[in-house]
Amino acid sequence: MNNASQRLSLPSDVTTGKTDLMNDASTWVVIPAFNEAPRIEKTLTELRRHFSGTVVVVDDASRDDTVEQVAHFPVWLLRHPINCGQGAALQTGIEFALRQGASIVVTFDADGQHDASEIARLIEPVLSGEADVALGSRFLGAARDIPWLRWLTLKLAILFTRLTSGLPLSDVHNGYRAFSRHAASTIRIQQPRMAHASEILGEIARHGLRYQEVPVTVSYLEETLEKGQTAWGALRITGHLLAGRIWK
Amino acid sequence: MNLFQWLTVPVLIAVALLDLAICIRNRRRLRLLRIAVCLVAAGLILYPETATSIARIVGIGRGTDLVVYAFMLVTSGVLLHFYGRQFTLRRDFVELARREALRTAEPGTGLSQFRIERLGRGNSFDEATSSSDSPGRSGDRHE
User: Taking the CB of residue B125, how many other CB atoms lie within 10 A of it?
Assistant: First the structure.
């Protein structure tokens, strides 16, 4: 890690659309990262252009130089000593943010799929008190270059979520979310891997948290498609969710 | 009794008695199941025609088929049990990894100048790391 006396020159062309709470240290963005060295620098640079709140990156035992890349940015870095999964990394980051007094916690993907300029719109329902949780929806917004099989898998996931949690959502596997402090404290992510997305929705339903969907943009890049959800992965998620209910 | 019965039945009964003693002391349900399996196995080895009688009663046909089906069911149950153990064990590992990550949180370049100062409070991670840490100092990682 570099000496803290070295200053990082932040971009001066910060866009409009920020609220006071976005500039305040009490709004946190949590980014789980695993082997994101090719993309993390661009993601954090873009994030810093639109958001000057506090950012925490949780490295999930990456085997590339993700950590070295992150070290150059004015963000908090937490490191899992072993690979635990995206869900576990999210919970770690959320817990850290809460301990530091976060009022709003935003979850954000490290691979650049999310548009940082939409953070202000995403947290608006939580800021105004209309909702405890704001859930990004690519199907209300835009899903750029989404493969048809991924589209079908996500649509089936929507059906599955409606049957299991009763939530009538348009997008159930979007990592772009905003939680109030109350919601972040109430929800406990125990599914360490990809089933956490469904688990979060189940927790929202179980605790009766107020939620609102917000249109967001998700951009699909060829390199990120390999890391995304597959049909086989969807079956595994179902198995993990079932196991989570049996072995509490 | 034939040689196979002499070799296996005493062993099974001994294991069952040992488990029964521990089970009575510690109230272990899994051991009760193991005792039952040992005793049933010992009984079927001593009286093999019993398996055939039971198989006919339940409509399976042959005693060996009954034994195979029972073995598959018991094995499936054991595998499910160990999967559950692995599932909960993994959860414990994640919790340990989380504690380590929270304990060794590091500020990135430039963060210390304004974020730590704005936070400006005693945090659990500060207390967990060296007491000589000053704002801006990168936390030492404990390998």
Answer: 20
